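This week, think about what follows.
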Amino acid sequence: MVTATPATRPVNPRFSSGPCAKLPDFSLDMLADAALGRSHRAAIGKAKLKAAIETTREILGVPADYRIGIVPASDTGAVEMAMWSMLGARGVEMLAWESFGAGWVTDVVKQLKLDATVREAPYGEIVDFGAVDFDKDVVFTWNGTTSGVRVADGDAIPAERAGLTICDATSAAFAMDLPWDKLDVVTFSWQKVMGGEGAHGMLILSPRAVERLESYSPAWPLPKIFRMTKGGKLNEGIFEGATINTPSMLAVEDYLVALDWAKSIGGLPKLIERSTANFRAVQDFVDTRPWIENLAVDPATRSNTSVCLKFDDARIKDGAAFAKAVAKRLEKEGVAYDIGAYRDAPAGLRIWCGATVETADVAALMPWIEWAFEAEIEAQTAAA
């Protein structure tokens, strides 16, 4: 018999891994102060963009000599700006253990046509950082959004290194400690841990990254939206709020509201605590069920934001169809939206556990996953 329908439902069923859930108790009224219909170059627009940069610095603890810029095209745009502007000066190592990291490999090897060393690990695992040559430029994701596998820490990255470290931290920033002395370029987007809107990326540069930009010109042409220097010097305006293209002032306001909320609850330590509690609610459930597992093999590298799960039961004949059917049941019940695994990832579920999600909602979801699993097993058995 199918497990009884759970009595408790998540108040907010939004567990998408991007765009992610808005901050608790969000309402559009919170955006009433947005500088709509005003130029982003007017004093009010500049002030809000500058505030977004400096509040980001404050919450994340970004060193004072690192530059922070708001750039086009979300996290993807920020990563591409860094790779196209900085790579080629020395050898390159590309690290990939999920879809987005694999995408950066494709761009560097097939588009920039660089002879890069590529280190890959299958979904659920991570590359051996101890084998990486950090005298080369190294490109990697801190947290694999599509695999649920994260870098455990930055211990393997030498503080004294010849190469640059270019880190896509889009589903890590605001939920994990980032070792700034080990990272030269860090990118992320507003729509992940902070629950902001899409289309805007954040690009953080160390002094070493700035030196590369000012001393090296790549062999290929750069489109306007990738150019960060003028006359061989860093275009400082980009890192003071003078964006390359026109930003959405409504999205900027939304990000500012999220940043203010983060400060009000206790800043980065509290954001990490909330994400970790959400992950724990999932993992505690998984640890007591034989038919579901965390995709990440090593507990030390399990993400506390994009938690990826796989079903493991001999009765399941078609893993992909089964996982999709479970996700569909949950959505139909209105208890979980958009939690199917990423299209390139192994079949299963992906539950966003970032800081804007309430732990009570995650805990309420778990019995529903068991209900949907049992219901689908019964339906599959009946159809056989």
In short: The CA atoms of residues 35 and 44 lie 7 Å apart. The two ends are 16 Å apart (CA to CA).
